């Protein structure tokens, strides 16, 4: 892996299920970069992330990802996919397991996993809840468990789907700071889906919107609170 190469190179990608939802997607993502995808409900944002994550088959085009095969892509799903009756620890360990190769150092496997779990739970401000079953946590706390699960995996590419929803301002700052710290330590990159356009533009280096079956880049103007958009309300709602 070389820093000069992009972590993700997407060419003429078309995504959808039976029919096309979004086509002609061209993206190049560098290490350290954060891009955000906005757009109205049901337009295909989650489908784009799931396709890049390898969970949905592309309908056309290519996706080249310069991340390790094992655990290299971390996906924080919109529907969290947590195991509700088991502990925060157990759920975050699922991420740590998938990112900690056993054969590299078999004797320290458990210890390495344990360190990753505790560290990720700590970063998400949930250490006091680590032994609680997930079902006893609030919606925002559960979302932070899903983020901790992905950080424990130590991915190079984070795909985050609405990972800040249900969080208050204070927790948004905690989560964002933790993710940014992780990204600078690990030289990773992130694509996030965020329906709140103002927040998306604040967090990201580049902002895209899905419109009329295409992924279009927005210009972020730093002198303005909002990016330059032709019809912002249409995108934000
Ligand atoms: N597994 C599936 N099989 C068939 N169609 C699906 C599947 N998942 C989603 N769809 C359809 O694809 C379209 C886009 O869904 P997607 O979840 O990508 O939208 P979204 O932009 O993420 O919306 P939201 O902002 O509400 O999360 C929707 O019409 C949805 O019904
Ligand atoms: Mg979605």
Radius of gyration: 18 Å
Provide the β-strand percentage band.
15-25%
Q: Which blocks of ≥5 consecutive residues have pLDDT under 50?
A: 224-237
Shape field: globular
Integer tally of domains:
2
Please identify the structural class as seen in this structure.
Answer: alpha/beta
By CATH, the architecture of the largest domain is named 3-Layer(aba) Sandwich
- CATH C-level of the largest domain: Alpha Beta
Determine the number of helices (DSSP H or I, runs of at least 4 residues). 7
Order of helices and strands: EEEHEEHHHEHEHEEH
Quaternary structure of the protein = single chain
Amount of helix: 25-40%
Mean pLDDT: 90
Explain this structure to me?
- The chain is an alpha/beta fold.
- It has two domains: 116 residues, 3-Layer(aba) Sandwich (Rossmann fold); 87 residues, P-loop containing nucleotide triphosphate hydrolases (Rossmann fold).
- The protein is 34% helix and 23% strand.
- It contains seven helices and nine strands.
- The strands form two sheets. It has a six-stranded mixed sheet, sandwiched between helices. A three-stranded antiparallel sheet has the order 2-1-4, with helices on one face.
- Strand 6, helix 5 and strand 7 form a beta-alpha-beta unit.
- Helix 2 runs parallel beside helix 4.
- The C terminus is likely disordered.
- Bound molecules: adenosine-5'-triphosphate and magnesium ion.
């Amino acid at each position: 892996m070389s820093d000069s190469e992009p972590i993700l190179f997407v060419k003429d990608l078309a995504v959808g299920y039976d029919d096309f939802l979004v086509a002609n997607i061209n993206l190049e993502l560098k290490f350290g970069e954060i891009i955000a995808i906005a757009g109205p409900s049901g337009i295909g944002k989650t489908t784009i992330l799931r396709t890049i994550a390898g969970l949905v088959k592309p309908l056309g085009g290519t996706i080249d990802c310069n991340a390790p095969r094992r655990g290299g892509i971390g996906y924080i799903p919109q529907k969290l996919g947590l195991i509700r009756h088991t502990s925060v620890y157990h759920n975050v360990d699922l991420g740590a397991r998938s990112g900690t190769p056993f054969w590299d150092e078999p004797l320290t496997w458990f210890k390495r996993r344990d360190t990753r779990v505790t560290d990720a739970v700590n970063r998400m401000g949930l250490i006091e809840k680590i032994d609680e079953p997930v079902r006893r946590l609030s919606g925002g706390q559960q979302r932070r468990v899903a983020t901790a699960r992905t950080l424990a995996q130590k991915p190079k590419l984070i795909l985050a789907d609405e990972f800040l929803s249900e969080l208050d301002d204070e927790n948004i700052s905690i989560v964002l700071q933790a993710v940014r710290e992780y990204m600078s330590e690990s030289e990773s990159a992130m694509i996030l889906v965020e329906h709140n356009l103002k927040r998306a533009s604040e967090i990201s280096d580049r902002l895209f919107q899905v419109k009329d079956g295409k992924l279009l880049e927005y210009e972020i103007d730093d002198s303005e609170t909002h990016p330059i958009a032709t019809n912002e309300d249409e995108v934000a709602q």
